[in-house]
Amino acid sequence: METKNTDANASEATTESTTLAQPVIDTPSEAEAPQNESTVQPQASQPNSTPWGVIITLFLLLIVAFASMAGGYYLYQQLQAQQAEAAKLNQKLQAALVEPNQRIASLEQQQGQFAASVESAMAQSLEQQTQLEERVSIIAQRNPNHWRAEEAKYLVRLAGQKLWLEKDPNTATSLLKAADERIKSMRDPSLMPLRKALSKDIAAVASVKNTDISGTVLTLDAIIDNLDKLPLNRAETHFSAEELADNQVSESLDDWQSNLAKSWQALIDDFVIIRKRTTDAAPLLEPDQQWYLVENTKNKLLQAQLALYRQDQVNYRNSIKLARKWIFEYFDLKDQQTIDTLATLDALETLKIQSVSIERFAASNMLNQLVTYGNLMTEEAQ
Q1: Residue 254 to residue 369: CA distance in whole angstroms
Q2: Which of 68, 75, 141, 213 pairs with 51 at a CA distance of 20 to 30 A?
Q3: What pTM value is reported for the model?
Q4: pLDDT tens per residue across span 136-156
Q5: Burial class of residue 332, CB neighbours in 10 A (0-12, 13-18, 19+)
């Protein structure tokens, strides 16, 4: 309504201006007057055309508003979709992080256990170091007699190894005497029971007969190596020169009858051989059986060596006897090497293996007391 009023006022102002301007301008003719009226009438009809522009403007505004609303709704839908996708990605990420988190937790647990074990190991090492320092301080405060006692204890232990492991009583006796010298150098009258025990051990070890085990083993090795060179028994046929001459075939054709008879006789002799022996027949071996004989003889001598190390007197002698029997029966007794081998085996068969009856040295306990406490314990304390 305000717009219509404004347009009316504007039209009235226009008419007034035209009327006021008429006295200045020449008046038109009557023919022109209708034209002026006609021109004035369309101007009065302009207020009726203005609402259409407003309607168009409002329509455009509505279109813009609807378009903005549609764009806002579309953007809202996109935002919701992005939020849903972000939620799904977050869930996937959380699911993917479960295993790494578990591994991190297990690694942290292992690290804690390792740290605890390291701390306990360090505590143990510190404790051991403290104990070692205490022992060092105790040893540092000892007098030289304790060092001599340690040396005597070591010598007695070494004597036991020589006696029971290496079967060497001579060296064991020397080591026990050296231990007695260490105790003697301490010049302590209270150690007389220890020296008495050492002297008893020395006498017991010295009474053990020394069997030369190493020398005997080397002798058996020499026999084993020489077995391949010993000659075996062979059957020998002794014919006189006349018999050999009679059996020879002549080259003359006139002697064909005698040559035929000799050939026939030689053929018969090859089939049947009759010999007369007044002594025991030596057993003969085929060439393929000689290797087994030599190897079995070597095996028996090796068994004798093993029994010697084990101090088994019975098996040692049985192995030597059987090896000697085979050599005597199957090898050439006229050969000098065979005779020497049999003599060596006879000497080895008489070897006596004496086992050590000493199980423990009497001075071992006293030496332990001397090293541990610095003196010997009385019988009442024991």
Answers
A1: 111
A2: 68
A3: 0.42
A4: 776 655 567 778 888 999 999
A5: middle
